[in-house]
Amino acid sequence: MGCQDELLVKKVCEMYEKISRLESLKPSKDVNMLFTQLVLMCMPPNPIDVTKLCKRVQELRSKLIRLCGEAEGLLESHFSTILGSFDNPLDHLNIFPYFANYIKLSHLEFTILSQHHTKVPNRVAFVGSGPLPLTSIVLATNHLTTTTFHNYDIDPSANSMASRLVSSDPDLSKRMFFHTTDVMEVTCELKDYDVVFLAALVGMDKKEKVRVIDHLAKYMAPGAIFMLRSAHGARAFLYPVVDRCDLRGFEVLSVFHPTDEVINSVVIARKFPMTMHSLDQGLGNLILPCKCGDHIQAFSPLNQLNMIEELAIEEHLS
């Protein structure tokens, strides 16, 4: 590990100590200041591989990701409550401090989706939509204007707040639905979706994340698109990382790593044309031939987002 990486890890560890001593992670001057400093610290592109850090730092990183997730949930609940007090909440979404990031991230995800799935999806599922489902709202409003969105969250209060945001909108109230359930209990319904999105904070560690991905691989429709969020470099101190090998049952199409203020990497994959019976028995000795290329490839729709394509992977069953 180089000197710069050692300095970054030292700073992140110091930031964790400060955040872990907070009495509450609800939005406040101190909370906002510390998390802003942490994000700015981890934002610059950095090739650091968090999997190669020592066990102590690995454990600290896991705790930090959970703290970030808790703080993010409380921040979204806070602003969803404020927005819900307006007669037309969707007219005031810009009061959320990171709304511009969601605009960029949603545009990015729509652009990537359009490159690999030319047909406009009829039904989309978003797993882990939370109290402020901005991705679904922005996609439904700006990009997928005829698509029906089914939002899944395990927290009934989150869904209650989220549904209040769209209930007064004559269009979205008819195209956006909220389901209070654990996604691990959703089975046959998953085959009805053309595209399934998985939120970054569903599955806060590798084991939990892979468990959810395996479940989706088992029940999603063959050929359906799977979009999920990951993290790269120093940003992996903020969010869980999804590796290509975690996506058993899926053909990984592309992985995009932002270099701007959009923190999450975007992974797009396609469910293999495999039967449920095959997945019940596991992947076994199935060998998936692939051709992989680590290269930078410019896509004009993404240039304005300062994006690079880190992987362009096309896999096909023989």
Kindly summarize this structure in a few lines:
By secondary structure, the chain is of the alpha/beta class. The protein is built from ten helices and ten strands. The termini are far apart.
Architecture overview:
- By secondary structure, the chain is α/β, with parallel strands linked by helices.
- The chain has one domain: Vaccinia Virus protein VP39 (Rossmann fold, 3-Layer(aba) Sandwich), CATH 3.40.50.150.
- The chain has helices spanning 3-20, 29-42, 55-84, 99-116, 134-143, 156-166, 172-175, 206-219, 276-280, 300-303, and strands at residues 123-127, 148-153, 176-180, 195-198, 225-230, 250-258, 265-271, 290-291, 307-312, 314-315.
- The strands form 2 sheets. Strands 3-2-1-4-5-7-6-9 form an 8-stranded mixed beta sheet. A two-stranded antiparallel sheet has the order 8-10.
- α1 packs antiparallel against α2, α1 (3-20) packs across α3 and α3 packs across α6 (156-166).
- The radius of gyration is 19 Å and the shape is globular.
- This is Nicotianamine synthase.
- It comes from Camellia lanceoleosa.
Any key phrases for this structure?
318 residues, alpha/beta, Rossmann fold, 8-stranded mixed beta sheet, two-stranded antiparallel ribbon, 10 strands, globular, disordered C terminus, Nicotianamine synthase
What is the rounded Rg?
19 Å
The CATH architecture can be named as 3-Layer(aba) Sandwich
The CATH homologous superfamily is named Vaccinia Virus protein VP39
Order of helices and strands: HHHHEHEHHEEHEEEHEHEE
Q: Can you summarize the main beta sheet? A: 8 strands, mixed
- Looking across the biggest beta sheet, what order are the strands in? 3-2-1-4-5-7-6-9
How many runs of DSSP E, i.e. beta strands? 10
CATH class: Alpha Beta
Average pLDDT number: 87
Give the helix level as a range of percent.
Answer: 40-55%
